[in-house]
């Protein structure tokens, strides 16, 4: 006799215990400390902070630990915590020109005031596995300059006396807050940038890449990339000057893109902008490409690629939303499926005799199709030989 | 629970959502944008419904949570446990004893009463979405009551299959004005929306939209004169309680094609079995 399945509660509790055990792993080994993660997995921590829209390296490292290193899960944990926090104050707008720089490169100007600074980058490392790290080899101290780099204003403002590059000006408008109000398409650029800033890095990277390969091409140059730390200030009623409440690390990318001009505007270089918490250079470059691509309509360019369609790009950028909705397919859908079963049976019974004939033809088709994968396999093999 | 407000959301957020709900009740079937918050459960798993439930729940309310009509499916268990934890409210599986019922994909078989509220979890609130993917466009279509495309879609079904091939999330027109997605309930449940005694609230967390069907509101399932709306029917009754008036799930009992049909509404089924016993 059939009895409906019960015991979901016990199953969930047991699943959580098993998960905790799996996360901890072999008890003979030391447990990872949150401080270790924050220090030694700092780029993962930075990505989690950027996509969760919460600057707190310790909590981001905790999220990373709790998620067993699953970045999307860690972003979700931190985001769900963020949403419970009260909003105590709003900071003064950050001036990235005042950044204490640790990295600053420009691909458009060879020599820039303040100089090009590589900083701690993976760029010119040879991607050879460093087996010394398997044996916990000693790491030498870095070379240190006599004094810290001085703050430099943005390169693009400094070096463009001719006005060939468009200037961004503050129109003083109160920015829309995507964490408090639902986005209302079409959204303005400031709102778009907020959405991109918390967008999934892999997604933005793929979209940015697509513009380089012709789906909405716009000839980008990396005008300036800067990474460093910046003081965050708030205005307090009793004090005349803003009060510093701490320091955060930021990455910023200013992309310069060709613009052929339109009836209303002379040809000019235009800009795409990327900004993220922490050291997130790849993210900010991708973000800048996508920001510029999304300006297609504003600049009167033809909209040809997915990266140029604001609703498409922005509605699908958030990894918390995307992973939630994809993963919900795991939930039971017995009822909808039952409804479809019933319909399918009805449609098939109405389909009648020619149905069988079509079925046999399908089998023939399948046989014919089988040849195609065989051809693909051949090419794969020849590719494998070449290296 | 320590460190969190009653029912998880802070009072300002609840107030914002309740304002949205008032607007939704005033304009039946209209999708009201609201500042949806992240919940500690994934989007797509009922965060919209949970935000509405959190906003309307009082300390004395009794809560019931169902998924696919059942109280004991894992996600229903999880959501019920969440509210027990963050709100400390009493919960029940008995439809008649609940003040607030949060549901996914079903309307209970037991008729609801005027002092009950049914909260639906909604994945895609926009009934026109799969015809027109752009939100900008669909908003204009709603404003202009431009619903012809929906009838064209249903007509194409008839032309291709001989009848309408939408079996769940079957579009309805609410109070003669807005075409609305009843959430992915089977069309079997659509008639229960019409002139309901209970207030019905719909929350879509990821899409940040909420809407309502107030009590005693006309709700018509879209159809044609020569192809009237019909609900699913089964040849056999529920194998456990013998009900002929409830939505039945198909249960596979062996690996040689054996199957039986049982009520998807577990509370309804159990109550009927008790009555017989």
From TrEMBL, chain A:
Pfam families: PhnI (PF05861)
Record field: transmembrane: none
Example of a GO biological process term: organic phosphonate metabolic process
Protein name as it appears in the record: Alpha-D-ribose 1-methylphosphonate 5-triphosphate synthase subunit PhnI
Compositionally skewed regions (Basic and acidic residues) per UniProt: 358-374
EC number: 2.7.8.37
Keywords, comma-separated and alphabetical: Transferase
Region (Disordered): 348-387
Secretion signal span: none
Hydrolase keyword on record: no
Alphabetical list of InterPro entries matching this protein: PhnI
Keyword Transferase: yes
Gene Ontology MF annotations: alpha-D-ribose 1-methylphosphonate 5-triphosphate synthase activity
Automatic annotation (TrEMBL), chain B:
Domain of life: Bacteria
GO terms under biological process: organic phosphonate catabolic process
UniProt keyword ATP-binding, yes or no: no
Record-level Gene Ontology MF annotations: 4 iron, 4 sulfur cluster binding; alpha-D-ribose 1-methylphosphonate 5-phosphate C-P-lyase activity; metal ion binding
Catalytic activity: alpha-D-ribose 1-methylphosphonate 5-phosphate + AH2 + S-adenosyl-L-methionine = alpha-D-ribose 1,2-cyclic phosphate 5-phosphate + methane + 5'-deoxyadenosine + L-methionine + A + H(+)
Broad class of enzyme this protein falls into: lyase
InterPro entries: PhnJ
EC number of this enzyme: 4.7.1.1
Keyword terms of this UniProt record: 4Fe-4S, Iron, Iron-sulfur, Lyase, Metal-binding, S-adenosyl-L-methionine
Family per record: Belongs to the PhnJ family.
Main function: Catalyzes the breakage of the C-P bond in alpha-D-ribose 1-methylphosphonate 5-phosphate (PRPn) forming alpha-D-ribose.
Descriptive protein name: Alpha-D-ribose 1-methylphosphonate 5-phosphate C-P lyase
Organism (species): Halomonas organivorans
Lineage summary: Bacteria, Pseudomonadati, Pseudomonadota, Gammaproteobacteria, Oceanospirillales
């Amino acid at each position: 006799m059939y009895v409906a399945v019960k015991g979901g509660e016990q199953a969930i509790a047991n699943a959580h215990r098993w998960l905790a055990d799996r996360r901890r792993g072999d008890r003979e080994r030391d447990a990872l400390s949150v401080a270790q993660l924050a220090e030694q997995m700092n780029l993962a921590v930075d990505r989690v902070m950027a996509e969760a829209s919460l600057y707190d390296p310790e909590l981001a490292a905790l999220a990373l630990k709790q998620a067993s290193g699953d970045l999307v899960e860690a972003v979700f944990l931190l985001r769900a915590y963020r949403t419970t926090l009260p909003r105590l104050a709003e900071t003064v707008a950050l001036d990235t020109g005042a950044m204490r720089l640790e990295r600053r490169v420009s691909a458009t100007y060879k020599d820039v005031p303040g100089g090009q600074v590589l900083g701690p980058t993976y760029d010119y490392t040879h991607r050879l596995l460093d087996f010394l790290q398997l044996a916990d080899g000693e790491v030498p101290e870095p070379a240190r300059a006599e004094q810290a780099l001085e703050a430099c204003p943005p390169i693009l403002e400094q070096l463009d006396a001719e006005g060939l590059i468009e200037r961004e000006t503050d129109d003083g408008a109160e920015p829309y807050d995507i964490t408090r109000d639902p986005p209302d398409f079409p959204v303005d650029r400031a709102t778009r940038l907020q959405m991109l800033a918390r967008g999934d890095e892999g997604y933005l990277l793929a979209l940015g890449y697509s513009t380089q390969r012709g789906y909405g091409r716009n000839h980008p140059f990396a005008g300036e990339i800067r990474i460093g730390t910046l003081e965050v200030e708030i205005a307090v009623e009793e004090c005349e000057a803003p009060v510093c409440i701490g320091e955060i690390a930021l990455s910023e990318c200013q992309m310069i893109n060709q613009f052929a001009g339109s009836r209303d505007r002379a040809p000019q270089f235009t800009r795409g902008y990327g900004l993220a918490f922490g050291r997130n250079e790849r993210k900010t470059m991708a973000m800048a490409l996508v920001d510029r691509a999304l300006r297609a309509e504003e600049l009167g360019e033809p909209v040809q690629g997915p990266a140029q369609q604001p609703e498409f790009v922005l509605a699908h950028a958030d990894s918390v939303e995307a992973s939630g909705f994809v993963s919900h397919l795991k939930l039971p859908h017995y009822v909808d499926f039952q409804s479809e079963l019933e319909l399918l049976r009805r449609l098939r019974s109405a389909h009648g005799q020619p149905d069988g004939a079509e079925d046999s033809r399908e089998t023939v088709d399948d046989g014919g199709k089988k040849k195609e994968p065989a051809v693909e396999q051949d090419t794969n093999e020849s590719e494998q030989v070449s290296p | 629970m320590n460190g969190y407000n009653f029912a998880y959301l802070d009072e300002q957020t609840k107030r914002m959502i309740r304002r949205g709900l008032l607007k939704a009740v005033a304009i039946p079937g209209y999708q009201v944008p609201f500042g949806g918050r992240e919940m500690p459960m994934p989007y797509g798993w009922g965060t919209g419904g949970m935000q509405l439930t959190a906003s309307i729940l009082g300390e004395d309310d009794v809560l019931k949570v169902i998924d696919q009509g059942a109280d004991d499916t894992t996600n229903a268990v999880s959501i019920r446990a969440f509210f027990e934890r963050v709100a400390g409210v009493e919960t029940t599986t008995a439809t008649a004893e609940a003040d607030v019922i949060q549901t996914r994909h079903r309307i209970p078989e037991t008729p609801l009463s005027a002092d009950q509220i049914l909260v639906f979890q909604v994945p895609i609130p926009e009934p026109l979405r799969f015809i027109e993917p752009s939100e900008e466009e669909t908003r204009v279509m709603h404003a202009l009551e431009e619903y012809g495309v929906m009838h064209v879609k249903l007509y194409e079904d008839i032309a291709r299959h001989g009848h309408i091939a939408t079996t769940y999330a079957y579009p309805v027109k609410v109070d003669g004005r807005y075409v609305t997605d009843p959430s992915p309930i089977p069309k079997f449940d659509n008639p229960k929306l019409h002139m309901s005694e209970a207030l019905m609230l719909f929350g879509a967390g990821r899409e940040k939209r909420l809407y309502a069907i107030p009590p005693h509101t006309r709700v018509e399932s879209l159809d044609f004169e020569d192809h009237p709306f019909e609900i699913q029917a089964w040849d056999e009754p529920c194998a456990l309680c013998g009900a002929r008036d409830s939505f039945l799930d198909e249960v596979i009992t062996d690996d040689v094609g054996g199957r039986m049909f049982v009520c998807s509404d577990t509370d309804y089924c159990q109550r009927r079995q008790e009555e017989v016993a």
